Amino acid sequence: MNERLSLTELQLIIKDSLYLALPDMYWVIAEISEIKENYNGHCYLELVEKHPDEISIRSRVRAVIWSGRYRFIKSFFENSTGESLRDGLKILIRVKIEYHEIYGLSLVINDIDPAFTIGEMALKRQQILKKLEEEGVLTMNKDLDFPAVPQRIAVISSANAAGYTDFINHLKGNSFGYIYYTVLFETPMQGKETESGIIKALDRIASNIDKFDLAVIIRGGGSQTDLSWFDNYNIAYYITQFPLPVITGIGHEKDLSVTDIVAHRSLKTPTAVADFLIDCMNNTENHLVDLGNEITERAILMLEQSKRKIETSRLRLIPGARAQLLSNGKELFRKKEILASASKNRLNIIDTRLAGFSNSLKILDPDNVLKRGYTITSLNGKILKKCKQVKKEDLLDTTFSDGSIKSKVV
């Protein structure tokens, strides 16, 4: 074919060919990669299909929902699924193929099947849970011991979230006067940054694990769309590996996200989390009071039992003690008599000996010796016992029983 066409003519041929080849409406499965609503109320989307790895893109196309139809589709979809049309959502759409000379190929969306999206969300959730179960980690955080006194709390939330404010006010304004120490690890709680933000917050808490008793993930109320950000494998896996118990209060009354399911405990609202922590403290206090009362009662019982045992032993010992005293008294009296007799005999012996010594002393008394005819001769006051002790001209003193004389040695 040698005919030369203008670009516009070629585009029109393509357009007519598409309309002739694909004149009908088609149901198409796709994932929303990007969605925008302009000031006229039209909704523009970028649709993709990903490879099984859920990362690389297999195909891409632009789509539009015109404002008149978009109002109806949006309302019906949200009422049916509880979800808003958003990035990352898989949808089943009824489309007509359109080709424009300037804007190229696009799909005009006429309808969206909410049942498909609900099924896809449930399927995705089940797939994540099945994977975690196969890996043997699904209940790991639930298996951790929960602290009896949960006072040091790491809070993962957005600082501006009403749920976070409600949680803090409810927790620290408790009527019991319990003191709690909280540290906020701020992170986005919806949108594409939810996953990375929560994982980074968990990492920061884990690096300061000795400062906390547990971690709570607080979000507060929101649409079903907001809940879907927590149907995330990576967030769930991090929680299963986390060394502290994790409590969630994401704020949905009907459904549990995967994050809720793997957490140590899931509660519906942030204030419910605060109530739970207050109840934990109150239960521990009541338990301690009960233990104190039980210890007191047991101590009193033991004292009463001991008193009764002592009284019983006393009554049993009295007759034996009396008999023992009587027996000991007789024995003591007998020993007293023996001791008195032995002492008397000993004293008599000693008296006899003393009398003998006294007689001996009397016999040896110098006066008695002189009376028996003996004399005592001395020289200069010194008694003489031998003759050689004197010499000629010595003056001697001789003592008799009745006096003394002096004599001179010649």
Mind explaining what this structure looks like?
By secondary structure, the protein is α/β, with parallel strands linked by helices. The chain has three domains: 128 residues, OB fold (Dihydrolipoamide Acetyltransferase, E2P) (Beta Barrel); 132 residues, Response regulator (Rossmann fold, 3-Layer(aba) Sandwich), CATH 3.40.50; 42 residues, no CATH class. Helices cover 48% and strands 22% of the residues. It contains ten helices and 14 strands. The chain has a five-stranded mixed barrel with strand order 1-2-3-5-4. A five-stranded parallel sheet has the order 7-6-8-9-10. The longest helix has 95 residues.
Q: What share of the residues lie within helices?
A: 40-55%
CATH class of the largest domain equals Alpha Beta
Corresponding CATH architecture of the largest domain: 3-Layer(aba) Sandwich
SSE series? HEEEHEEHEHEHEHHEHEHHEEEE
Overall structural class, as computed from helix and strand content, comes to alpha/beta
| Structural shape | rod-shaped
What is the gist of this entry?
By secondary structure, the protein is of the alpha/beta class. It has ten helices and 14 strands. A hairpin with a 5-residue loop joins β1 (25-37) and β2 (43-50).
List the defining traits of the structure above.
410 residues, alpha/beta, OB fold (Dihydrolipoamide Acetyltransferase, E2P), Rossmann fold, 3 domains, five-stranded mixed β-barrel, 14 strands, 48% helix, 22% strand
Q: What secondary-structure arrangement, pairings included, does this model have?
A:
Blueprint lengths: L6 H15 L3 E13 L5 E8 L6 E9 L1 H15 L8 E11 L3 E9 L1 H21 L17 E6 L4 H11 L8 E6 L7 H13 L7 E5 L5 H5 L4 H9 L4 E4 L8 H5 L2 E2 L3 H95 L1 H6 L4 E4 L2 E2 L11 E6 L2 E6 L2
Parallel strand pairs: 3-5, 6-7, 6-8, 8-9, 9-10
Antiparallel strand pairs: 1-2, 1-4, 2-3, 4-5, 11-12, 11-13, 13-14
Helix pairs in contact: 2-3, 4-9, 5-7
